[in-house]
Amino acid sequence: MSNNIWESVCEGLLKTVSKNEFNNWIQPLDFQGIEDGVANFVAPTNFIGTWVLRNYGEMIQRHFISEGTIIDRVAFHVDNSISRSALKSSTSSKHEIQKSVSKVSDKSLSETQSVLPVAPLDKRFTFDSFVIGKPNELAHAASRRVAEGGPVTFNPLFLYGGVGLGKTHLMHAIAWETQRRKPGSKVIYLSAEQFMYRFVQALRFKDMLSFKELFRSVDLLMVDDVQFIAGKDSTQDEFFHTFNALVDQNKQIIISADRAPGEIDGLEDRIKSRLQSGLVVDLHPTDYELRLGILQSKAEKHAGHYPEVNMTDGVLEFLAHRISTNVRVLEGALTRLFAFASLVGREVNLDMVQECLADILRASDRKVTIDEIIRKVSDHYNLRMTDILSPRRARTVARPRQVAMFLAKTLTSKSLPEIGRRFGGRDHTTVIHAVKKIEELKSIDNQIAEDVELLRRMLEA
Ligand code: ADP
Ligand code: MG
Question: I need a labelling partner for 11 at 20 to 30 A (CA). Which of 50, 61, 137, 156 fits?
């Protein structure tokens, strides 16, 4: 029952704070229940506990109250076994969390300072669990190389790509692997946001010396989501100095961001060029094969946890086809399906998918537009868009036009007359003819079949 309260509070919080803030600060909290008017949480690190207490404590309290649960305050406990040894061992378990909780209070803040400012590493994020496909093979290979150590070759390694494509996963995998190969080496992984927080704290507590010492004595520094420090001038400055000091000592640095260094607005030019001076690799949006591979690998894991749940063929293919946004959503969908199937004692089949994932499917229902189709098709065949719309009937123009009409009919919900109208005011019978023609050609002409498939994928990606 108490978890229901926390769920409602979270819903309220989500309306108040940004999704990002929520994911970074609220999501990692483990709600323990209410005792004597105190809402208790376990936070993964002292750092997160302190930060949430300072910045969101009152807000959380208010939301509890507005949900009808009066509490006097919120309290955070920390699993020290995780925050201190995340990089050393992978053996900390939930059980240990309960054993070694300690209170976070303002008093303990000065103690916290000496703890490695590492975010806990996720045990699931290893190279073993990383599925490789065309879109991420380069990023994966570069990460592997860096994790193998040896002479520093790419410094820094800069990984960039959209949300949920595996940047954080790869960074954690590098940290685990480095620790495994060289148990004594000093690895720091943290987000740019945490870097800034540490920096600001050091300024406030006049403790710059230990801050600098800490960051400049590591063997491997990883800073995740570096776009966060764009526009934050003094943090950038400090980051730049840290960066240079480490590169001078031939220490490895790995940075991630949601876009290429040159495209991060509000980042100083000298930093941009520093970031570009090593190897810059991007993670491309997933393709169908990669999504299916990831789903298969995750489904196997779920099957281990829910041996009673059966899944019919075609479900994973359907999901890989329909959910193309990001891997996190894909994982969430699968988790929900297994949990649901186990709860209601049903098998996972396409009907249940439609029912259970209606919201996710609706949200990722990407609407392909006729304009996009015309643009992509003309690009593909090296034509101008006006050629496609023109009355010209030469084969070199007419065939691509038919392909575009076919795609418009199969990928959008527009009616035949509407499609005709959008293709330079043609009759709906012309559209019917085009669709039939392409269907026919697809089965006898490999080139056409490939063109159509490729275009369909690009449009649906
Ligand atoms: P990013 O940091 O790029 O936003 P994450 O690394 O947090 O993305 O990945 C989001 C989720 O998707 C994680 O749970 C991660 O394990 C999973 N994921 C992403 N790419 C892959 C992959 N290639 N193989 C397995 N899991 C993946
Ligand atoms: Mg990330």
Answer: 50
How do residues 321-370 score in pLDDT, each as one tens digit?
Answer: 888 878 988 998 998 999 889 888 899 999 999 888 988 887 776 678 89
- Provide the residue type at 395 as one letter: R
Residue to mutate (ligand 1; options 128, 176, 255, 328; most atoms within 8 A of CB):
328
Give residue ranges with CB within 6 A of ligand 1. 125, 129-131, 136, 161, 163-169, 294, 327-328, 331
What confidence category does residue 36 fall into, taking pLDDT thresholds of 50, 70 and 90? confident
Burial label for 110, CB within 10 Å (0-12, 13-18, 19+), is exposed
Q: What is the pLDDT of residue 383?
A: 94
Q: Which ligand is nearest to the CA of 225?
A: 2
Q: Which ligand is nearest to the CA of 24?
A: 2
Q: Quick one: what percent of the chain has pLDDT higher than 90?
A: 51
Choose the CATH number for 114-282 among 3.30.1130.10, 3.40.50.300, 3.90.870.10, 3.20.190.10.
3.40.50.300
What dotted CATH number matches 370-460? 1.10.1750.10
Structure tokens at 298: 């995750």
- State residue 66's pLDDT score: 77
Residues of the chain with CATH 1.10.1750.10: 370-460
